[in-house]
Amino acid sequence: MSVSAYKRVQRDLESPRSVERRIFSRITADLETWGQAYDRAETGLEKLSALKGRLQVALSENTRLWALLRRDLSEPDNALPTELKASIISISMTVDRLTSGVLSGTGRVEDLVGINRPFIDGLAGISGAEG
């Protein structure tokens, strides 16, 4: 079986929760990897330089992921409890605010990672995870 066929079968067998976890994990790993230089930067020019390339892509993907979650949670047929949906929507708006801070040079990428990690743990079913 070719690698692409194996990956296609794997995707077909994954649960939505597993897919969400995989996407969150990949984006968060990119934020961690590419955000280190940004968070260590001391000048605006260094931060701007760190924003070029992969970090900017990771920030965009993270923003899109949270926007998709927000849209899904706003659907009338979403079965999650109302209070949980409201909390996650609120967190997604915090992600937007923090991302704007990073893009303006005042935020920290590690804050976005700190929001994503509990969701990854929760989707993995790790006890004590928030989200």
Mind explaining what this structure looks like?
With 131 residues, the chain is mainly alpha-helical. The chain contains 6 helices and no strands. The longest helix has 25 residues, at 16-40.
Question: In a few lines, what is going on in this structure?
Answer:
By secondary structure, this protein is an all-alpha fold.
> How does the overall form come out from the CA principal axes?
globular
Q: Low-confidence stretches at least 5 residues in length (pLDDT < 50)?
A: none
* Number of discrete helical segments: 6
- End-to-end Cα distance: 38 Å
Proportion of helical residues = over 70%
Task: Give the ordered list of helices and strands.
Answer: HHHHHH
Topology:
Elements: H1 3-13, H2 16-40, H3 44-51, H4 54-74, H5 82-104, H6 109-124
